[in-house]
């Protein structure tokens, strides 16, 4: 038996040129380019005689090219310069032809052709480009079947424009080849435009192969090593910045600094006021010591002691002892310097210290903090008081 497809009175194609006369035949429906219509019928002819017959009329709905873009999806953000994959699907393999085109739209305005022809294989890798449209959430991609002309759009998505790559920071402090007189110097550098985070490396060799410090997510343009101090020696350091998209800029130049735990400090006492408080009187000497504090709270007393001549404190009277001492130099090997004041009455055997341990910090090496100010203290035994005013500075 032969089986043929007709549309009206027109023969379109042979479904089978020879098949057994067993009453049935399985057929994958094909309109044989006749298109959609309700005037199709099938002719069955005996191969051993001229007998034939037609089926009744029936309808064939032609296959349609149906496509959908599956990526980008709605609400996603693609960054310009990134490599992204556009994906799509079709209703049946080959039904939409062998090639498609891809175009970028911003709202209803066509921005550019992503590709004029690529295989209809379901994916295309694209280096994201706004094509001059600028940053926005109103982008979509148009997919078109070249052979059928059928086209569809993707969902709306965002194209973001990354900040430019920041330049190399400039190292500000300490100066190159500087010798620091304290063990945890603060490192400072400039803030390049578009800098979002910083990477810092500090090492005791210029190759930075085993850094003492390696910070990769600093949000500020300075750094002080916490908790532990640098060993004495030479250190190299450099910094680079990245933008908000994670792209790193170039490294700064490399600087070096030297850590020397001994620092020379100069202290000057501007004036000392001793005055009575009430009716009592007192006679004695005023003197003070300097102490150095270590991280473990051990103390070292500086050997230098300064002393004024014996004083006589009378009732209701104030004595102002103006002293502009020459700068007194001390080598410091510790975390801070404090000053301890004492007043010895004329008849006293032991010094009457005005505070336990230290009375006031005047220099903090950890924070490079220099206090300029005054201190006052009542002397209970003599009912007198003193006030001391000082200024300080570091030499190196």
Structural class: mainly beta
| β-sheet strand percentage | over 45%
Largest sheet: 8 strands, antiparallel
CATH topology of the largest domain: Immunoglobulin-like
The 3D shape can be described as rod-shaped
User: Domains counted in the coordinates: how many?
Assistant: 4
CATH class wording of the largest domain: Mainly Beta
CATH A-level architecture of the largest domain:
Sandwich
Helix content: under 10%
Number of strands: 35
Q: Radius of gyration over alpha carbons?
A: 45 Å
Tell me the distance between the termini.
Answer: 111 Å
Low-confidence stretches: 263-267, 274-337, 341-375, 377-386, 390-396
The count of helical stretches stands at 0
Tell me, rounded to a whole number, the average pLDDT: 75
Description of the molecule:
With 396 residues, the chain is mainly beta. The chain folds into 4 domains: 2-60; 67-160, Immunoglobulin-like (Sandwich); 171-259, Immunoglobulins (Immunoglobulin-like, Sandwich), CATH 2.60.40.10; 263-394, Immunoglobulin-like (Sandwich), CATH 2.60.40. Helix content is 0%, strand content 52%. It contains no helices and 35 strands. The chain has strands at residues 2-7, 10-16, 37-45, 52-54, 58-60, 67-71, 77-79, 83-90, 99-106, 109-119, 123-127, 136-145, 151-153, 157-160, 171-173, 178-180, 187-189, 197-203, 213-218, 222-223, 233-242, 255-259, 263-276, 282-293, 299-301, 306-307, 311-313, 318-322, 328-332, 336-345, 352-353, 360-364, 369-370, 373-379, 384-394. The strands form 7 sheets. Strands 24, 25, 26, 27, 30, 31, 32 and 33 form an 8-stranded antiparallel β-sheet that branches. Strands 7, 9, 10, 12, 13 and 14 form a 6-stranded mixed β-sheet that branches. The radius of gyration is 45 Å and the shape is rod-shaped. The termini are far apart.
